[in-house]
Amino acid sequence: MIGVEYAKSLIETHSNLDLCMEEFKTFVSFYDTLSPIMKSPSISYEDKHNIIEKSFKNFSKDFLCFIFVVIDNNRFSELNEIYHEFKKMYDDKNNIATCNVYSSVKLSDKEKKEIISFLEKTFNKKIIINELIDENIMGIKLVCEGETIDYSLESRINKMRFNI
């Protein structure tokens, strides 16, 4: 639960959460590159701070200070967990839901827009979709906010069987 505590403190202290989200997303993309350096006991905290400052000089002071706290408390290995918890809190605060859309083929832009529109009306939230290809599905299955909306052929056949 370390991630929850750090994410909560970041939400409470950062002055611009949209900027923070963008910076955090970018920073996490460099995790594999930075990890050996940040986890190394032979590199001083001061040197680690300098590496971060020079590498991310365009980032906000608020975010860099947060990263320094993570490093100084030897929590760099939990950075991905912290990011995921922060993203959940950020999305909740901004009324955003990320939904998985399973289909056997890549969806067209028009289909994606229709699905997003349907989900936004259904859940009354801004929707971000993850398109996932599952060749075993004939149709579409939507998973959002813990709810599954199944428009697959298999689901329709099972409903027909149940009704007969």
Pick out the low-confidence regions. none
Percentage of residues in strands:
15-25%
Number of helices: 8
| Rg on CA atoms, Å | 21 Å
Rounded mean pLDDT is: 89
SSE map:
Blueprint (H helix, E strand, L loop, with lengths): L1 H12 L3 H12 L2 H9 L5 H11 L5 H12 L6 H15 L2 E8 L5 H15 L2 E8 L6 E5 L2 E4 L2 H11 L1
Parallel strand pairs: 1-2
Antiparallel strand pairs: 1-3, 3-4
Helix pairs in contact: 1-6, 2-6, 4-5
Keywords:
elongated, 164 residues
Tell me about this structure.
Strands 2-1-3-4 form a four-stranded mixed sheet. 18% of the residues are buried. Helix 1 (2-13) crosses helix 6 and helix 4 (45-55) packs antiparallel against helix 5 (61-72). By secondary structure, the protein is α+β, with helices and mostly antiparallel strands. The N and C termini lie far apart (48 Å). It has eight helices and four strands, in the order H-H-H-H-H-H-E-H-E-E-E-H. Helix 7 (109-123) links the parallel strand 1 and strand 2. It folds into two domains: 2-92; 95-163, 3-Layer(aba) Sandwich (Glutaredoxin). It has helices spanning 2-13, 17-28, 31-39, 45-55, 61-72, 79-93, 109-123, 153-163; strands at 96-103, 126-133, 140-144, 147-150.
Brief overview, please?
By secondary structure, the chain is of the alpha+beta class.
